[in-house]
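Handoff note, outgoing to incoming analyst
You'll be picking up this chain. Sequence as last confirmed:
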Amino acid sequence: MRDTPYLVVDEGVAEGNLAAMAAHARALGVALRPHAKTHKTVELARRQLAHGAVGLTVATVGEAEVFADAGVVDLFIAYPLWAVGPRAERLRALASRVRLRVGADSVDGVRMLARAMHAGHHGAVPLAIAVEVDSGHHRSGVPPESATDVAVEALDAGLVVDGVFTFPGHSYGADAAGPAAGDEAAALGQVRDALTAAGIPCPVVSGGSTPSAGAADGGVLTELRPGVYVFGDAQQWELGTMPPHSMALTAHATVVSRRDGVAVLDAGSKVLGADRAAYATGYGRLLDHPEARITALSEHHATVTFPTGTATPALGEVLRVVPNHVCNAVNLVDELSVERDGLEVGAWAVAARGRNS
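Most recent structure output, in case you need it:
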């Protein structure tokens, strides 16, 4: 028995989630390139590849280095990297040992990437880019009508153009997944057609998020990049994307204080993360008490309110908490306890923890 709080993966549930998304991608006729920033573990990366993933998506050079060291040979840094100084040197070294694709959303960005790939003493290193398109999330990404300019500049600079990608992040909202998937298909289809009309092949049309994956358009996309699906979290639960029985990661937390209708747990923001989306009903959910709500969160306390007429857990009782945003929770711990049929069978190191650059 471990001291609480700690994060636990239900191996069987996680395996079911991996198999379900792999089957969905096959049914759509698209490649699966899951985002490994969610789990940051070598063990789950290998399982995703065993289920047929063509490679991994990551957010940073540091994450890519961890998975390359573990033997993953096809990586996509889905981020508009600004690679200067040490990061440029690391990116060049990485591109020399794996098949690497990097996101880009500006002419200046691809020029900088090209300089980084030509800066060594042993000749140029090959690097592929995918042009990032804004499909409605309004974070990074160029408007569809500007994507061809970025692709042309990349080719002129000696880079390979794999195609285009987007993140339909506006799928995170009530009844938003379907419309966001439609926006994604429209924007990516527009850019794909513009590139091919300009004589630029566009073999990769990459999109997807966990909420929008179910509505993804396999007639436009060639690749899906969901991440959270491996574990689920309270956001997916409340959006209706994943049911409670698909929650594969929970924080085990002890009731350390109680009064009628209220229990205080020893898992605060330093274990659960502090995210709370506008649509969230609290700071996480209790897997075995779905009627309860986490109404307050501080660094080492979670205050849970139970409806009138329901029993309040006793002091010392261990509860299973589903974090709101599992990616943040995983990055707060060194390892994940692994359980099978309720028994601990090992632990997985969070190998890419803190690799934020």
